[in-house]
Amino acid sequence: MREKLIVANWKMNKTPLEAEEFMQHFPKEVKGISGIEMVICPPFTSLVQLATLMRDTALMLGAQNMHWEKEGAYTGEISPLMLKEIGVKYVIIGHSERRKYFGENNAIIHKKTTAALNCGLIPILCLGENSEERRSKETEKVLKKQLFGALDEIDLEEEKLCNIVLAYEPVWAIGTGTPASGDEAAEVAGYLRSLLKEKWSALAGNVRILYGGSVNRENISEFTGKKDIDGALVGGSSLKESSFAGLIKAVFNEGRS
Ligand code: 13P
């Protein structure tokens, strides 16, 4: 059984002080939640402090990006080893904002995914088509290229590879208030799982697939209620303690009803 996974991507929001304020309330709000893995990915400047504040909670720490080398002359970059040492468990790789604003292509994403897995971090690999690609019915083609671009020829046993998490984030749904429908997201999640099955049959059933793009506490169950969707990657709705806790409680209550 795949455990549900809800991930907060704070993007470039919250100073360390604001992050600390969030952590004064949020763990209390989700106390008693079980059976759902809860991850927060703050900016780099709050990682160390959150690692400490999360110590006696069920929360896990994630990073929003990393370099693929372990160390070296890469001014301004952060390595997987540095993340690992401070207690980071997950790392978001290939977010569409990084593809769009920072020129990340499938080759870079491949290197980062491999490096994360090699260093014992769990990559949350983001995939998604833009509105033009959806309109011209190229969604599957784009996703296939992104998925195999990131994972092909990764020199790892399936055992290690099955730790990977996929996040289907259609670009047109991110930050727009217009999410994909549950059925649209489920169709794509099913497609991604079928692609995994083609190449790595043993792994396909274990990989968790998230949906991301304008998810909130009102619509989350549309997604997590689908058989191939195991959780969500949440931007805007993860910034306020009450809205993020509400979203997690909605998933928790689903499991009980
Ligand atoms: P929103 O939830 O703000 O649409 O952002 C989604 C996202 O990009 C998460 O990585």
Give me a quick take on this structure.
The chain has 257 residues and is of the alpha/beta class. It has a single domain, classed as Aldolase class I (TIM Barrel). It is 42% helix and 16% strand.
Structure, explained:
The chain has 257 residues and is of the alpha/beta class. It has one domain: TIM Barrel. Helix content is 42%, strand content 16%. The protein is built from 11 helices and 8 strands. It has an 8-stranded parallel barrel, surrounded by 5 helices. Strand 7, helix 10 and strand 8 form a beta-alpha-beta unit. The protein is globular and about 45 Å long. 40% of the residues are buried. The model has no long low-confidence stretch (mean pLDDT 95).
* Percent of residues in β-strands: 15-25%
CATH third-tier fold name: TIM Barrel
| Number of alpha- plus pi-helical segments | 11
- What is the SS-derived class? alpha/beta
What is the element string, with H for helices and E for strands? EHEHEHEHHEHHHEHEHEH
End-to-end separation in angstroms reads 18 Å
Major beta-sheet overview: 8 strands, parallel, barrel
The radius of gyration computed from the alpha-carbon positions, rounded to a whole number of angstroms, is 17 Å
Number of domains: 1
Number of E-state strands: 8
| CATH-assigned homologous superfamily | Aldolase class I
